[in-house]
Design a protein that fits this description.
Blueprint lengths: L4 H14 L5 E6 L2 E7 L6 E5 L8 E4 L10 E6 L3 E6 L4 E5 L4 E5 L1 E2 L5 E2 L2 E7 L4 E6 L1 E9 L4 E12 L2 E5 L2 E5 L12 E5 L2 E8 L2 H6 L14 E2 L8 E4 L4 E6 L4 E9 L2 H4 L3 E6 L3 E7 L3 E6 L4 E9 L5 E3 L3 E2 L2 E6 L1 H14 L7 H8 L9 E6 L3
Parallel strand pairs: 2-22, 3-26, 9-10
Antiparallel strand pairs: 1-2, 4-30, 5-6, 6-7, 7-8, 11-12, 12-13, 13-14, 15-16, 16-17, 17-18, 19-20, 20-21, 21-22, 23-24, 24-25, 25-26, 26-27, 28-29, 29-30
């Protein structure tokens, strides 16, 4: 852990090891607090059913029009829409039923076009889709029919910007580089008045992504922000800390971190995802997934199974408040046949899965498993 380590790591380790809570504690930091997970003390392992995580489970078949087919890189959601990001191809916009609506903009360098997409925000209230590139000067704005509306300029370059909506505000965080003289870590943009912008600069975050001479460590660092909880939770590769960007106070504050022995960590790094009831930690390179229960302040190592589909193992990919898994039909057919042969499928689900397999055609468009996270 780098950026808050200098002021808190000693107290974090002391409190975590001496707390009555086995592996999770809270440390006060000025006018806020941070939840701390002690990785060393996570010894219990659990299997978590998908039904414990989501309110419902839908199987969505995307329309088979030629223009609707896609190779998904990532997906984004709102109450009634789905956006599909692709590599070197246009963004696809669908109704939640899977009906194709339109392409969002197009690949290119002209007005309303993009070369590489980093984030997509569906904002039904504003009737808009907002898009950021890996690097650029603008947030691109489109309507819900795919038409280009506006370039929102923030007065500086946007490096891998992530987006979040809150009432009448769009917020953004990005990689802020000293050697480019970047002037802001985050920004709040008023939807009705895009020229009205509040900026926030966080020295500890910016310092963490530069060397002692102020030069960036690299553009390979990522910002993860899955928008599964309020107050814009996000983290960066280099910080090992989950932050909240509160658009109402225009403040960025540390919220969650993990204490881990540096020798054990080695070259591993963390990805933190905040859900309404949990923090979810993936240790990349360490092959460990940890779930933190916010209410009980306890944590355990987990694997997930999709108990709606024969208890198949699944990784909880979650975005915009939804769990999702995208499948090509042939891939899904192979997986379900494997489950039926494994002996792990409950007896009362076998006939349902066998019937479902018969509906899968390798020439059809993709199939989506979707479920809203429990609040």
């Amino acid at each position: 852990m780098k950026n808050i380590a200098s002021i808190t790591i000693g107290s974090i380790l002391f409190v975590a090891c001496n707390s009555s809570v086995q592996n999770v504690t809270t440390v006060k930091l000025d006018d806020t607090s941070i939840t701390v997970l002690n990785e060393e003390k996570v010894t219990e392992k659990k299997t978590v059913k998908l039904s414990e995580l989501i309110e419902d489970f839908q199987i969505i078949r995307f329309e088979d029009k030629d223009e609707a087919f896609f190779k998904a890189n990532w997906m984004y959601f709102s109450d009634n829409y789905i956006c599909v990001k692709q590599n070197a191809a246009p963004i696809k916009l669908f109704e939640k039923s899977g009906k194709y609506i339109a392409n969002i903009g197009n690949v290119g360098q002209g007005p309303g076009e993009y070369k590489s997409i980093y984030d997509i925000l569906l904002d039904e209230k504003a009737q808009s889709v907002y898009v950021t590139s890996f690097s650029g000067e603008y947030i691109l704005q489109y309507d819900l029919k795919g038409n280009f509306l506006n370039n929102i300029k923030l007065g500086g370059n946007i490096n891998k910007g992530r987006l979040f909506s809150n009432d009448s505000t769009i917020s953004l965080v990005h990689l802020c580089f000293k050697d480019r003289q970047d002037k802001f870590t985050g920004a709040n943009i008023q939807i009705q008045n895009p020229d009205s912008i509040q900026y926030v600069y966080v020295e500890e975050i910016t310092s963490a992504i530069t060397d002692k001479n102020g030069k960036r460590q690299g553009f390979n660092d990522e910002i993860w922000s899955y928008r599964n909880a309020g107050d814009f939770p996000f983290m960066m590769t280099h910080t090992d800390t989950l932050y909240h960007y509160n658009s109402k106070t225009n403040k960025i504050q540390a919220t969650f971190t993990m204490a881990m022995d540096s020798e054990k960590k080695g070259d591993s790094f963390f990805i933190f995802n905040e859900w309404p009831k949990n923090y979810f930690v993936t240790i990349v390179g360490g092959d460990r997934n940890i779930l933190v229960d916010k209410e009980s302040s306890t944590a355990y190592e987990v694997e997930f199974i999709n108990d709606f589909m024969g208890n198949m193992k699944c990784y909880p990919t979650c975005q915009d408040g939804y769990f999702y898994q995208n499948w090509e039909p042939a891939q899904l057919k192979d997986k379900l046949e494997e489950i039926l042969l494994s002996g792990d499928c409950p007896e009362n689900q076998k006939s349902k899965l066998e019937s479902f397999i018969q509906t899968l055609n390798e020439n059809d468009n993709n199939i989506l498993f979707l479920g809203k996270l429990k609040q």
